[in-house]
Amino acid sequence: MMATRRGVIEVIDFHKSFDKKTIHSGVNFYVRKGECLGLIGGSGTGKSVLLRSLVGLEKPDQGQILIDGKDIVPMREAELVEIRKKVAYAFQGGALFDSMTVHDNLAYPLREHSKLSTSEIDKQIQEQLEEFGLLGTDKLYPASLSGGMQKRVGLARAIMMRPEVVLLDEPTAGLDPYNTKRIQESILSLKSRGVTSILVTHDMPTVYAVCDKVALLYEGRIGEQFTIEQLRQEPPGIMSQFINGESA
Ligand SMILES: Nc1ncnc2c1ncn2[C@@H]1O[C@H](COP(=O)(O)OP(=O)(O)O)[C@@H](O)[C@H]1O
Ligand SMILES: [Mg+2]
Q1: pTM, entire model
Q2: Which of 80, 222, 223, 242 could form a disulfide with 56 if both were Cys (CB 3.0 to 4.6 A apart)?
Q3: Tens of pLDDT, residues 28-57
Q4: Contact of 206 with 172, CB cutoff 8 Å
């Protein structure tokens, strides 16, 4: 994937309203190859809509979304299917197929989008299960897994196609410290492979553990953006208030 002038992902002047309610009024940011951007902001500020837009599941009213330098906003479904192979979106909540075993959930993207043989698919699934601490769960159905395990299966499935970009929507929400740590490790392992990511979360310890920079979505825009180093040294303005629970 060729990096653009500014990054693998670049969002320019993104506007989105639902009915008469303006959610985004000129969002700008970029993420360089291999970086993890933490995207924080109050509930309902439009973080999920922004992530969904990055894979073409929503269209902005105005603005550009450059993936690899190409604007995906005007793209039709056939082209977006190709984009979604490069950019994986791990849904808030996991979104597993309840009627399929863990094995079949993980096999699904490969059966749909690759020409791999059954034995090659099985091998990749075993590797992924091992990486995510899920060995032995392959014959189980999602309903019999804990919430933390379901989330890990969801993340494992999202990255089965070895995407170059991963969008994570609150991957640690509601998880205990053990499962949170496993998710953090998975994100770090993606990073070590050069995968670019955006992490939407309220979980600041995870932001500090895995992100390179943090952006705050506030009043329809990215109000402030800082590197983790800046954030550690000199907690600035609105972001500091947000993190410390002094503003939404
Ligand atoms: N399809 C939709 N139709 C109407 N309103 C929507 C739709 N999707 C999201 N919204 C609204 O847009 C706002 C932002 O939603 P969302 O991106 O889910 O927020 P966040 O993820 O930051 O909590 C919310 O007010 C939500 O109700
Ligand atoms: Mg959300």
Answers
A1: 0.91
A2: 80
A3: 999 999 999 999 999 999 999 999 999 999
A4: yes
At which residue do the structure tokens 């009627």 appear?
99
* CATH number of 9-243, picked from 3.30.1330.30, 2.60.40.10, 3.40.50.300, 3.30.230.10: 3.40.50.300
User: For 189-213, b where at least 16 C-beta lie within 10 A, e where not — what string?
Assistant: ebbeeebbbbbbbbbbebbebbbbb
Q: Whose CA is nearest to atom 5 of ligand 1?
A: 18
Q: What is the pLDDT of residues 89-107, one digit of tens each?
A: 887 666 789 999 999 999 9
Residues 6+ apart with CB under 8 A from 79: 72
Q: Is the CB of 150 under 6 A from ligand 1?
A: no
